[in-house]
Structure prediction request, 396 residues.
Amino acid sequence: IGKYAFENCTNLKAVVIPNSVKTIQPWAFRDCKGLETVTIGNQVDSIADYAFSGCDALTSVTIPDNVTYIGESVLSRCSKLKTVTLGNGITNILPYSFQDCQELTTANLGSAVESIGYWAFNGCTKLSEITFPDNLRNIDASAFNSTAWLNNQPDGIIYAGPVALKYKGSMPQGTNVEIKEGTKTIANDLFYYYGSNIASVKFPTSLEIIGAWSFYKAANLTSIEIPDNVEIIGEKAFAGCTKLESVSFGKNLKELGDGAFVDASNIKNITVKAVNVPDFNLSIWDPTDPFMTNIYNSATLTVPAESVDAYKANKYWGKFLNIVAGEAGVEDLSNEDINIKVVNGNIVVEADENAMVTVYNINGQVVYNGVEKTIAMEQPGMYIVRVNGKVQKVIL
Prediction:
């Protein structure tokens, strides 16, 4: 169905999208003020921007599982819309999607939804019931502004399913922040206006993402310990934490954002437990290293013993002048019913036939992963052999 196809058809009462249609293009039914019902065919996979915006007579809309994309403002300004149900094909709810649907009371978000954009439900003043899926990872802080759901939340950290979305009310000076277990994401800007009141923070083991600017100017933090499941730390997440002296990153860290610790100028010790060297995700236009120059020059960076050379060779981590070996990235094999030896230049593993074997080179790169128990290496040298979560060094 093409652009503007039925725009402003104010006498149109019902629409049945046939199974031959795959795409509903922008503004296709915008401002069809009399449209009361819409049935979407089982072959439609895309509903573009503003497709049903301003359809004031719609009261209920169901997006079927076959739809994988809905555009910006797709159902915005539908003044009588009360219930919307998203199918399990939608992964992203884009900005303004349901903005100013003032009668909307219930939003059933499909199980696949991972992100919700800015002002997505802004102005849905009666929206009080929202089903948040476990897959949800990113929500813009403004997504539910001026909704009954947000207004009804008690003071403190507001959780939208697995996301710590925003902080409500006043925060006393010297607050010890504890994010509840089960939380996967700390949203961008969570404590942006409260940083100076935070004395300490405890993260849950479930945490995967720490959003941008989330602990900006938390100047009284002296140490932080990032759990093993955290993969991403966003832009300026701990910028301005001027008293921070000790930082520990977990085993699964994959990405540090632009300026993540900029103006945190007193860091003395940094520990990274990740065997594989994390990336620095810097801005294209105005890149800022996650750490200050004086930190690179004076702080001690402790990394897994098997990955020291890889960190030293890295374009960014290699800026640290003092990189030292800590514990191996995983535990030692000494008390396990597993034996590793070198026979005729091959690594030989004596373990259960289904035991998974991973071999790393000295740079922390995976050179073998599988269940074979006799493994030939092309080059002599030191290797790290990991079996069932345990590790041992061998030299060929």
Notes: Confidence is low (pLDDT under 50) at residues 330-335. The helical segments are 148-151, 293-298, 308-313. Residues 46 and 225 are 43 Å apart (CA to CA). The longest strand covers residues 163-168.
